[in-house]
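task queued by scheduler; priority normal; single chain, no ligands, no partner chains; default sampling; output format set to structure tokens
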Amino acid sequence: MRRREFIILVGGSAVVWAFATIAWPALADDYPNKPIKVISDSAPGSAIDVTFRMVMDRLGTVLGQQIVPVDRPGAGGAIAAHAASESTPDGYTLFAPALSLFITIPGKAENLPLILPRDFLPVGSLAELPLFICASAQSGIKTLPDLIRRAKQRQAKSPLRQLE
């Protein structure tokens, strides 16, 4: 098992364990007695979506109930947030947005009929995904300082520099 897969598995198991031990007693004795829908703001096939589905698969195993992942990408997460906000708050529809949703939506989507974090509070983290910046192997850029140096050199020659 690769390190990344191990981290995802451990992180997902921790979320499942936390849900099962903390939230479970607060719910009805027969919960869950029907499939649980989990809305995500990620695009199908993205790294976030794949991780999300792995965690939801494990959650379904622990709960003994089908977990139905629902991808609602677009509008910086506003589409997913709106869909989740219109759901009945009965524990059968959950919302798993990227953390950036809580940064990008407030103030940028005035017509959205909800306010973050008033209407949704982050209660746990499902996973951490690394983000890399890459350059072509033929570019000669091998490090982040190389990239910054190249950008500064090009900026000095650019007519856009006068707009600063």
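post-processing summary
- The radius of gyration is 21 Å.
- Residues 3-104 form a domain with the D-Maltodextrin-Binding Protein; domain 2 fold (CATH 3.40.190.150).
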